[in-house]
Amino acid sequence: MEKLGLDPGVVARARALAAEAGAPVVELARSHTTVSVERAVLRLAGVRGADSDGIPWVNRLVDAVRADVGLGHGVSVPVFAAMAREGIDDVTVLAQKAAAGAVTFGVPAKKVELVAARRAATRAANVGLKVVDRRRVERERLIKRFGDAPRRPWIYLIVATGDIYEDIPQAQAAARAGADVIAVIRSTGQSLLDYVPEGATREGFAGTYATQENFRLMRAALDETSKELGRYVRLTNYASGLCMPEMAAMAGMERLDMMLNDSMYGILFRDINPIRTFVDQRFSRQVHARAGIIINTGEDNYLTTADAVEAAHTVTVSQLMNEFFAHEAGLEDWQLGLGHAFEINPEVPESFRLELAHALLARELFPDAPLKWMPPTKHMTGDVFRGNLLDGFFNLVGALTGQGILLVGMMTEAVVTPWLSDRDIALQNVRYVLNGAGNLHEDFVPAPGGFIQRRAHEVLGEAVELLERIVADSMLTAIADGTFGIMKRPADRGKGLDGVARHDGDYFNPVTNALEGLR
Amino acid sequence: MEKLGLDPGVVARARALAAEAGAPVVELARSHTTVSVERAVLRLAGVRGADSDGIPWVNRLVDAVRADVGLGHGVSVPVFAAMAREGIDDVTVLAQKAAAGAVTFGVPAKKVELVAARRAATRAANVGLKVVDRRRVERERLIKRFGDAPRRPWIYLIVATGDIYEDIPQAQAAARAGADVIAVIRSTGQSLLDYVPEGATREGFAGTYATQENFRLMRAALDETSKELGRYVRLTNYASGLCMPEMAAMAGMERLDMMLNDSMYGILFRDINPIRTFVDQRFSRQVHARAGIIINTGEDNYLTTADAVEAAHTVTVSQLMNEFFAHEAGLEDWQLGLGHAFEINPEVPESFRLELAHALLARELFPDAPLKWMPPTKHMTGDVFRGNLLDGFFNLVGALTGQGILLVGMMTEAVVTPWLSDRDIALQNVRYVLNGAGNLHEDFVPAPGGFIQRRAHEVLGEAVELLERIVADSMLTAIADGTFGIMKRPADRGKGLDGVARHDGDYFNPVTNALEGLR
Amino acid sequence: MSIVRPYGDTTGDGMVQVSFTLPVTHDKRAEGAAIQLANKMGLDPAMLVHAKPMGEGFTFFVVYGRVTHLVDTEKVQVVERDYPLLSAKDVNAVIKRKLRRRLSVVGACIGTDAHTVGIDAILNVKGIAGEKGLEYYRELAVTNMGAQVSVPELVETARAQKADAVLVSQVVTQRDAHLQNTRAMTAAFREAMPAGKRPLLIVGGPRFDELMAAELGVDRIFGRGTTPREVASYLVHALLGDQK
Amino acid sequence: MSIVRPYGDTTGDGMVQVSFTLPVTHDKRAEGAAIQLANKMGLDPAMLVHAKPMGEGFTFFVVYGRVTHLVDTEKVQVVERDYPLLSAKDVNAVIKRKLRRRLSVVGACIGTDAHTVGIDAILNVKGIAGEKGLEYYRELAVTNMGAQVSVPELVETARAQKADAVLVSQVVTQRDAHLQNTRAMTAAFREAMPAGKRPLLIVGGPRFDELMAAELGVDRIFGRGTTPREVASYLVHALLGDQK
Ligand code: B12
Ligand code: B12
Ligand SMILES: Cc1ncc(COP(=O)(O)O)c(C=O)c1O
Ligand SMILES: Cc1ncc(COP(=O)(O)O)c(C=O)c1O
């Protein structure tokens, strides 16, 4: 039911502007590659494991190729040409040899060799993509077999012990207690590592390293619990960071179900270079699209650094951009967990109605997207009694506005990463609200022309204005100017820029080709 | 704005049935008096103080009159006839003499003496009533001078230390923290005392004795604080109990602003005899009407012993009866703080919407009454985090349905009488809800024919049915059968029945006459 | 393992939450005072996460931290149920067989306490938590005196009904009202009846410490969440001995 | 009066609230264990008012009760502000007069910590709580390095900017990350620069214990709710001495 009476003309205009603002960024992404994109290709093509220092063989291999011929051609042809030349048929073995300096890389001059290398690379990459496809089918089968989450919103809980073997029982306990989605928070340092750690890990700060093995262990444990509970429990991790493409590939191969993947989070909140991020982001989303993974975007974060009332329209703009980039990368609406948050200062008069207006605007702008609804964090204090109250009103907005994914707020938000009991209290809170007021949306009809409608129209209007400015100045300029989250991030600064390369004329990437339906 | 679409015919029928059911009770009340009614008359007529055992002189005097001539004539004529006869012009002195056995009482046989006694009694009683009138004018003046509570609902906080001198600073602190109304909870034993204790008191259990001096002390302290805060802070105490009429008289003379006064609370929850209660209740309400005091009824209590969903219609029936009795006693709509409560088991599906339906029904049935909205108590547990959450949703229902008087719920409801910090946390809760969602009622429009409307109609329908049964069987039978709060209270049982007397033909009561506008 | 510590999010982390008010005006010293108290309670380190001035001269604090105390579960003192839990049928059967008359039970809320919901839950047919109350037991003769019963009335009724057991409820605890009333009650029974003739004395209510029975002079205390079956089973156990 | 006790609703009642989880399955013994812990924390009597099983083998408890501890406000240890609070104007004037060049300040979040809001509140013009940040002070030269700065980078920048003071923020505390990072930072400065040449080392963040400065090797710690003026005033006090 339409509750805001948005003007379809204005909505269409907002989308058109977003497309216009996004087009140059897409062009940038289509014409560049990064070390992580190439590593992701090699992971799909079968490179596994790490050296004795824990540096993954994909890193060693890409570095070796790059040292010899640069990244502009893509690594696939040099690598598979070398395989043929060296007579090696295990790409990990090649990586090990290359690391020892025993292989040199180049683009074959001969057409036949080139074609053969492309064909071999495509074949190998397809093996990886087949795994991804099988996982997707498997997910659909398990959801049928075990049953799906019993209702919307899905209840989303985090675990963050730093130790995968403490995380597992906590995640299982959380699932038993009612979680539909488990997110394993990542260690604070990981997103700036330009490699993905290997194996099961037990030491993270405020989170657990995202590794393929940790993904596998957690998914297996949750499969067990899903069976026990008779409902499929989803697993989430983070793509964002310097290894976005690889995270996406690993998530696809290990049947993760959702991934945090925002087009700008890394830029704004991890000071990663904008171009690096946009290139990585596009590739990673193409992989998610193929894997049937739902992405979660990060607009909620803007409201932790900027004011949630003043900056409300920046959230809307970012959602529109994220939608545009996602569609362009092949994601469908049901895969768009666009982010927003309950972050208005509770002292602001009408704060609750403002929250309702903002949440409803997101709901009606993106009617087919699940939407990720984030709890209060910034205005949480050590007053845990007040905290639990705010979380309750957050849950109520979630129920009233049909949010798809409800991140469960914890009363100890300002104190500690959640304790076992915090999670239990928080779930009890969610359950009370959904059970008692889950259908209240039927009785909630913003007065025509009233406060809520007016506010929603105002935010949409401001969003359109901002988009107009962005179209005029370019996205990269807007980001440099601190438009989002008041973080100023110029295009020539930030981490990981040296991992970016412009495509040469002969750039070849078998995964992109497959994902874009090229031959 | 009408939100429930109640059928005015059904509403009118409910009121007509309540009048029909109430008529015999009013008849009972009009034809009986009680020791406390007579004591109240003497208090207004000027009897003050207590003997050395703490037994008030009014008690001694009424007992003496009763021993000599019974109560059927009222005590006024015997007392003022004795005054004339003994040449005493201070009625307290007479009481002291009577207590010493030095006076005998009778109804004068001579017409002139009778007329003289009636006239003297009337004059004396009018002195008391003048005090009451002056207090009422004074209240109106102070509200004008200091300003009134800044908004509806009025925020109502209790103090309950047991010691008037601890209560005072706590009450002042509560007022400074935002309370619009302070209620001094009474010691657990007091309502069954057939006398009113004297003087300032410092030892009560879970509450402080209601005495005229305590009333005075607290009102004076709150006047100070009202001045300081620039808003008139109201004071509440309890009429209910064996001394209802006297409490009403004292409250009128000490400018209390609201009084707990239910037509059945004493019967049901203190096992006071039904006839005693109905007689006392009528007189006390006549005094409240004169004093401009707002009464608070006690339907909320039913839901602590009966189930809040099953028994919802008993609350409605009781509100209708309370309204009928109140109007009959001269109270106006603005004086009717009809009670109801947020007591549905939070585990019940749609509990919150059911609460909304019930609260809105009360609102729309009694559009001009302030309504007293009571917080959850029965389903509060030692889980104080959950407790604060429930209180928040209670506050929200209060805001959404325009309740007039909001009793502030405490997270420690199931644990202790409120601590200082509990009150602070509770007020913060109220403030958050009113500030953030106080106008949300504009956006809350129960779906036509939807859950909330259906439930409200259903409860009203059940109330009409129950009223029909009560009309058929009589109120006293209904009370005997456990209709209200599942408490079975036969008319010939319960405390205080021996304090009731049927009027003789010459019954005379100068206060009733004045209040009923008779001569 | 018998030694455990509180658990925040990792085994052995010892984490607890504490809140309290101190009668001091809020400033740095007040926060230091709060930490001092938390330290005395065994929190080390103590994290002061919230401080809020309340009225004049009072500050409310929330503190989180690790307690150094260990909990030895072997040393825990509790009143464990030391009798078998019987069905209503079995209770009736035992009484019929062993007593050969109905067992007389008198219940009341004494003093000024008017909270009858608890004792009613135990006595009335309706019961609680899906269990029927003692009135439902054919072989029990129940007299429920209701609320605000004085001790002399209770003793009188117990005598009149030849009570085998007296069940008293106390809910209000402010200024230890429940303890005072219970002591007054047991004293009265001791005075009124010789040891052998005295009914079994039982008190219940949500805030009693079940370990205090001897101290209060009662035979048994029932706390929060008691169900009628537990009480019935205890009655036959205590009055009629071993069930074999 | 220097001795106070917690206040529930009466002076001296000593009442506090406590909650925690024990790694035990919920039953009577578990409740007894919770009371044992509360007793060890000094609650006597301890009222167990809530117990809830959570998952397998864990129970959450809420306990209320009277603590026997006394708080001696005279013995409270706090880092009191031992310098005058100056206005921006005065700060600028003192620097101009005594230092005769701009005072150089380098700020950063070190380690993997990316919480810049706190340090930005101190440094950026925007400031916090109505006070402008240090960038606003004409006589301060501020270099804000942002988040996730490594210790070697920080030392390098401090050297390059001839920093008079280095301001480091640490918000994440899990596994004592803030303490480890701070120790690593002070060690690096000690190693890189001789005592006289070392900038003033300051850390801040909401979960630091301000008493730990010496232990961590820093000159000063700023906690929850610090404002820029406090920091600026401290800087001139510590670097330029008495203001007369
Ligand atoms: C319902 C209620 C009332 C009703 C009582 C109706 C009635 N007929 O009982 C009314 C509205 C009348 C009332 C009035 C008052 N109440 Co009241 N009331 C409550 C409330 C909300 C629920 C109590 C209840 O019914 N619990 C459910 C029953 C089933 O549980 P239970 O009593 O614990 O009983 C179980 C066990 O304890 C045990 N048990 C209990 N007794 C016995 C006896 C035996 C022999 C055995 C074997 C077992 C047993 O078995 C039972 C079943 O499991 C509580 C708050 C709360 N949520 O707990 C406040 C509460 C008990 N009331 C309180 C107070 C102070 C009052 C008043 C003085 C004023 C006020 N604040 O409202 C008045 C005066 C009462 C008086 N003179 O005693 C305080 C007591 C504070 C304290 N610890 O001292 C409480 C805690 C509220 C508060 N925080 O202020 N109250
Ligand atoms: C905003 C925020 C974020 C933003 C940060 C954006 C940014 N650019 O800073 C984002 C969304 C990116 C984020 C991410 C994460 N966060 Co975060 N975040 C918060 C949040 C909500 C608010 C912090 C804040 O901005 N406070 C406001 C500022 C002004 O206060 P302040 O930092 O205390 O600073 C004041 C004083 O302490 C002092 N001060 C501080 N530093 C300094 C330095 C000096 C020199 C001086 C003099 C004074 C000083 O002065 C300041 C002004 O008064 C808190 C929860 C909360 N409500 O506190 C969690 C919180 C800090 N985050 C946390 C965590 C774990 C994370 C994540 C790891 C994952 C997650 N749970 O989200 C990631 C990764 C971050 C990383 N790598 O460091 C935890 C930390 C737990 C712990 N104690 O270890 C918290 C407590 C939330 C929680 N309960 O889980 N977060
Ligand atoms: C979109 C997105 N990606 C990633 C993260 C977390 O990233 P990191 O692992 O860098 O802390 C967040 C923050 O919660 C996010 O919103
Ligand atoms: C109408 C009414 N009267 C009186 C009381 C309290 O009476 P007592 O003093 O008997 O506890 C209540 C209970 O809160 C009430 O609702």
Q: What do you see in this structure?
A:
The complex is a heterotetramer, with two copies of chain A (519 residues) and two copies of chain C (244 residues). Chain A is 53% helix and 7% strand. Chain A is globular. In chain A, α13 packs across α17. With 519 residues, chain A is α/β, with parallel strands linked by helices. Chain A folds into two domains: 94 residues, no CATH class; 304 residues, TIM Barrel, CATH 3.20.20.440. The model of chain A has no long low-confidence stretch (mean pLDDT 97). Chain A has a nine-stranded parallel beta sheet with strand order 7-6-5-4-3-2-10-9-8. Chain A starts with 7 loop residues before the first helix and ends with a helix. The longest helix of chain A has 36 residues. Chain A contains 19 helices and eleven strands. Chains C and D meet through β2, α1 and β5 of C and β2, α1 and β5 of D. One pyridoxal-5'-phosphate (PLP) binds next to α10 of chain A.
Features:
heterotetramer, A: about 525 residues, alpha/beta, TIM Barrel, 2 domains, 9-stranded parallel β-sheet, two-stranded antiparallel ribbon, about 55% helix, about 5% strand, globular, C: about 240 residues, Defensin A-like, Rossmann fold, 5-stranded parallel β-sheet, 3-stranded antiparallel β-sheet, 7 helices, 10 strands, elongated, binds cobalamin, binds pyridoxal-5'-phosphate
The first-level CATH class name of the largest domain in chain A:
Alpha Beta
Order of helices and strands of chain C: EEHEEEHEHEHEHEHEH
Helical residue percent band of chain A: 40-55%
**Percent range for β-strand residues of chain A:** 5-15%
Quickly give the structural class of chain A.
alpha/beta
What is the CATH superfamily of the largest domain in chain C?
A: Cobalamin-binding domain
- Strand coverage percent of chain C: 15-25%
Report the total helices of chain A.
19
Mean pLDDT across the residues of chain A is: 97
| Spatial strand arrangement across the major sheet of chain A | 7-6-5-4-3-2-10-9-8
- The CATH topology of the largest domain in chain A is TIM Barrel
- Report the structural category of chain C: alpha/beta
